[in-house]
Each structure stands twice: as C-alpha cells, then as structure tokens.
Amino acid sequence: MQSYTTTHLRQLEAEAMFVLRETAAQFEKPAMLFSGGKDSIVMAHLARKAFFPARLPFPLVHIDTGHNFDETMTYRDWFVEEVGARLVVGSVQASIDKGTAVEERGPTASRNRLQTVTLLETIEEHGFDAALGGGRRDEEKARAKERFFSHRDEFGQWDPKNQRPELWNIFNGRKHHGEHFRVFPLSNWTEMDVWQYIKQEEISLPSLYFAHEREVFERGGTLLALTDFITLQGGEAPRRIQVRFRTIGDATCTGAVVSGADTVDKIIEEVAAARQTERGTRADDRRSETAMEDRKKEGYF
Amino acid sequence: MSETQGYLDMDLLRFTTAGSVDDGKSTLIGRLLYDSKAIFEDQLEAVERSSIQRGDENLNLALLTDGLRAEREQGITIDVAYRYFATPRRKFIIADTPGHIQYTRNMVTGASTANLAIILVDARHGVIEQTCRHAFIASLLRIQHIVVAVNKMDLVDWQEDVFRRIKHDFEQFASRLENLVEVTFIPISALNGDNVVDKSGNMPWYMGPPLLYHLETVYIGAQENHVDPRFPVQWVIRPQSDKYHDFRGYAGRVAGGVFKKGDEVTILPSGFSTRIKEVVTYDGPLEEAFAPLSVTLTLEDEIDISRGDMIVKPHNQPHVSQDIEAMICWFSDSTKLQPKGRYVLRHTSKEVKAVVQEVRYKVNINNLHKIEGEPHFGLNEIGRISLRVSSPLFFDSYRRNRNTGSFILIDAGSNETVAAGMIL
To answer: What is the rounded CA–CA span in Å between residue A258 and residue B286?
Structure first.
C-alpha cells in the first residue's frame, strides 16, 4: 500500500490555505493586512495559492506609520503589482492630522502604538469584517493563546479570557453587527518554518532581511537604524556595520542584529543557532511584561 | 547546506499534555523546549526576572506559557497554550492545557487536533481519578497514541515495581476504552531530565527509549483517513479573467481518501456524477490529492456545486441524514444544553440548524458510569444526545474520520461555541 505522507511545511501550508478560504467564505468583506514583513509576504503568497487561478478575493491593507524603510515601500509596490492585488493604505499621519491619534513625545517616541487607531479607523471606513494578519503564536507569549479566528468586539478589543474554543478544523466566524474578526492563518508557524518555506517556495523578500552595511546606534539594548525619524540622544554614537533585520516594522522601533547572513540558507543557519527571539529586537515589546497583551486588547494586530 | 535541506523533510507531530497541578507538566514541557533550544535567552531571562520578582523559589517555567496578565497575577493557566519545537527529525506542536476546573473543555480542545497525548502520572500517587479522566478524553477524541509518563521516579528511589504497578493499573482501566491503538509507558524525572531527552542511568531496568526519541519516531501516518474519499467544497473559484474564462474550480481540503485525475465522482446532495478533470494547484496539476492537502478540483461536466456540498466516490459514500447520534462535550459556562434546545451546527463546510431531540445519558468521566435522567448539560459535561438538523449532513462516524465526524454547536443568540460533537 502506498504511504501518503506530507512534510510539516506542506501540512502548515494546507492548514493556512484552508483558513484563508474559510475567511473568504465566512465573511462579507475581508481584508489582508500587509506590512511588507516576511510573515505578511508569506501569508499573501499562500493566498495566491489558495485562490489560484483567480486573484485574491480581498484587498491588501497597509497601515503606514510614515516611518518606513525605503526598501519596504519599494517592495510593497512591486509585490502589489506582481500579485495584481488591490491596495488600501491607512495613514497614521492622516489620523494624527485629524486629531484621532496623538503623536508620542520625547526622544523614544514611536508611532507603533498609534497604528492601532489607524487600523481600527481603516477597518471601519471600509467596512471590513475580517482582517487577516501574519501573527504567529510562537512570536510572543500573549500570542500563544490567540485563536485562528479571533473575535473583536465593536470597539475592536480582544478579550483573552473570553475566547471561542477552536476544535478540529471548524472555525466559528459568526458575529454581531459592528463586530469583526482578526484571522491568523500562520498561527502554527514558527520563525524557522517561515524561513524554510521562503526557501522552499523561492519567495523574494525586501533586501532589509539580508545582511547589509548600515548606520546603527544602540538604545536600550536594541540596535536601531539611523533614519530621518530618529533624534540621537547624548552618548548615542552611530556606527556603520553589517546588520540585517529579523522583523520589519516601524523604522523607529525595529532593531537590527549584527549579521553576515546574506542568503536565505545562511539566515536559516543563523535562526537555527539563534538564542534570542526575533521580537527580542523589538523595543515596543520591551516596555513591560505584558506590553503585547495590552496593545492587543486595544485592537493591535 | 545539507542541514537546511534536512529541515525541509521533517514531518509534524501534534501532541497534547495532560496532568494535574503538581505533577510536573510545566517542568517537562520546559525541559523539552529548553533541551531542543526552543526557549530563547531573552525568554529565559524574562522568566528569571519574573520568578525573582514573584518570590518563586525555583525558576518558574510555567511563566513561559502563562503569558496573560491575569494568569501571571493569579498563578493559573486560563487557556490552551500552543508551544512549538523541532528536532532534526520532526516539528512538534504542543497543545498545553491547564489542570484546574475548566480542564475538560480545554483538554477536549487541545486533543481535537492531536495525534498523541502525554498523560503524566506522579509516581508517588499512581493512577488517580484524574489519570482516568485524561485517558477517557484522549480515547473519546480518538487520540490513537498515548504516552503515560510516570514522573518523579527520583522520589520513589527509581523503583521498577512502582512503575510496573502504575503500568498494570493503567492498563486495567484502559482496557475499557476504545480507539487507543498504542499505549507506551516511560519512567521519567522531568526535573532531572531522566529519560526525557537522554536515557537515564538511574533506571537500568527500563529497556525502552527516552520520551523525546519516542516522540520523534512514533508512526503517525495512520492518523488521516486515506480510504474513504471525502471532499467538502469550501469555496468556488471563478477567475472571470480572459485567460481562465470558463474555469470553474472547487476549492477545499481533502477530508479523507484519495482523489485522482479521471476518477469518477458523485456530488452530494445533488447525486450527479462526473469525472475529475484536473487536480489544480498554483504549482501545477497534481496526479492525486489526499488528506490533509488543500487543492482545487475541476470537473468534466458543468454541475451546480456550492459551498457545503461534498465530492465523494460513487461506491464509497458517507451517511446522508438529518438525524445525528453523537457524543458531545458542553463548553459554555453561561448556558446549559436544553432538551429541545435549538442551535446552529457547523460540520465540515456546512452550517445548519439543529434541535436536540433527546438526551440519552451523561458520562461520569471519572469512572465511565452512565448517568440517565439528567437532561441538562453544564460546563465540561460529556454525554450522548440525538439531534435533528434542518438539511441532511454528509458524515462518517468520528471513529472512522475525524474531519467528517466532528461538529460544533453554536448558540445563535450569543454566537458562542457551546459544544463539541463527535458523531457515533
């Protein structure tokens, strides 16, 4: 008798495609959050597979902090063109100009938290009832208990103590008017799985992920890139070294790691040997023990 | 280079861990994660900082999984936490479920996607009521592989007869359970790492492998049903582009059996028959598709098919009925199952209305006794009911196929998932 076996990547792929199709089927107006980071790129790649040969049955939504790396924007525009997707941009600057979001003050100010305001405004403005995100449970301890289909009330809030149990492959996306869902097709993927899949599928990524020379400085144990959005404080001395980014987000709080890994294979080796989580380089998570949970309750990704 | 290639060939084992509060479950998971390098320095440092701040005597590994504020404050685990680790052989997903009052609901949830369950037994206490409850839930959810990890062997002087007695007691109880294919007993000390990753020198009488080796090598290929072809249609793909003008594909995840190009198939509920034109994927057509792959099927004839329909083979069809007999586990703490109660039922890609016809019995999950004449189900209660649904379901028994034999009940008012069901 023939044996029907599948690798872990094929199983994760099949699961993610199933979740993407459920989202398209169960919701009236879903959207996919797209940051230009590797997880959202992998998620969008899986969506292409799930709906092939049709186009994506939902738009890509970019919540733009205005503090972007140029490489991310170049990649985003190329990718949208390549996939033939519709792009919706929610601008944090626009929220600030309207007065719905208030810019943080001080030298360590970040627009990371403000993204939540813009995200919720964008969801409301377009009437999205489900927002697909690339979040993974292995990223952060508050995410370890996140559901594939994560219910949000009419204020966009997450109640971790009152989540719907998820059994087998049956997802309950029923909701009352005004409520919406966040959906995480990559829930069961690890950072390593994502990299292995990028290798297997030969997915191209923004150049930021690969080792390159860049001016960086150290702040609170994190290596930050010197950009136009950052004001150096006393004692902070930028230096030019070989770095790469393990995550890509707002340029003011995404840390770099010293690395010579300039190919996917070298990155996989580096991830295998790494002793720090990828979010270990995120200044936004270091603010407190439950920083991620607090942001998620408010409606963060 | 060969190492990164090796990672691409791993398979996947999903397991759940069951144990009561002090039997060392967190320590065991912590050790598996730590020894397989799935715990990172910054996570460990964060746990060290919190442990010191809380005044815990030892490194509190439970803090790795208990990430929510309320959990940290109250020192409890609220929910199923999923943890991940990998060895060069396999990737593992652990559904870690808490040991307190909501246990049943959480263990049922964790067990629903697991291939294997580790049941922890404290060597000093032996097989207790909780052990039996865990074994019953594992068998109810059709977890075919059980590992009974007899923990804290260091506290019973590594004695073989303690281990043998526990093995004997468990086997006695397990003989009354269905669905268990394989039960493996391993004496361990999670705290010291004996027989967790490496073979223990303290128990030369134990001839079997350490726990991790067993997890890495246990055969799990039989988990999916590759015999009865079932393809619930999830989504209809119609590109409406010039290139794919007449394309009409049925997207779904194979729930059982094998589908090949040219196979004769029957569509439910219409009963029309046709042939598979192609198994379509983004990467090119496949020769065949089998569970659990997500693919798209195109058919030779134009037939009206929509979400909730099922593609099967003419000579191997599922049950088609509006009357369902099932075991259920009640999940809601705010409402009880009502006789004649009406719910929304989700089964594969189909959603129907359901009314409770009869409550047959409840099960005392500590001793497996049937309780009759108690028509209401509260939180964590398990039992057998009959349901009548608004349009026919296409199903198999849960024992034969987890995908086509499982369902959930939803309260139409609150939209909460209130029960998990396994069709008999």
So the answer is: 43
| Best B219, B225, B282 residue to mutate vs chain A (most A CBs within 10 Å) | B282
Largest CA-CA distance found in chain B, in angstroms, rounded: 75
Which residue, among B148, B146, B147, has the nearest Cα to B178 in the 3D structure?
Answer: B146
Question: What ipTM is given for this predicted complex?
Answer: 0.92
A53 with B11: Cβ contact below 8 A? no
Span A40-68, mean pLDDT? 94
**In order of start, what are the domains of chain B with their CATH numbers?**
2-223 (3.40.50.300), 230-312 (2.40.30.10), 319-423 (2.40.30.10)
Average pLDDT over residues B342-351: 97
Task: Measure the CA–CA gap between B32 and B18, rounded to whole angstroms.
Answer: 15
Q: First and final CA of chain B: distance in angstroms?
A: 49
Domains of chain A: 8-193+290-298 (3.40.50.620), 203-285 (no CATH)
Task: Say if residue B105's pLDDT is above 90.
Answer: no
> Do the beta carbons of residue B196 and residue B212 sit within 8 Å?
yes
Alpha-carbon gap, residue B79 to B96, rounded angstroms: 8
Residue of A nearest to B398 (CA): A168
Query: Taking all residues of chain A, what is their mean pLDDT, rounded to a whole number?
Result: 86
Chain B interface includes A15 (CB < 8 A)? yes
Task: Report in angstroms the alpha-carbon separations of B346 from A143, B183, B317, B407.
Answer: 26, 32, 20, 6
What is the Cα–Cα distance from A161 to A153, expressed in whole angstroms? 13
Cα–Cα nearest to B59, from B69, B51, B68, B70: B51
- Alpha carbon B280 to its chain centroid, in Å, reads 29
Q: How much is the average pLDDT of B28-44?
A: 74
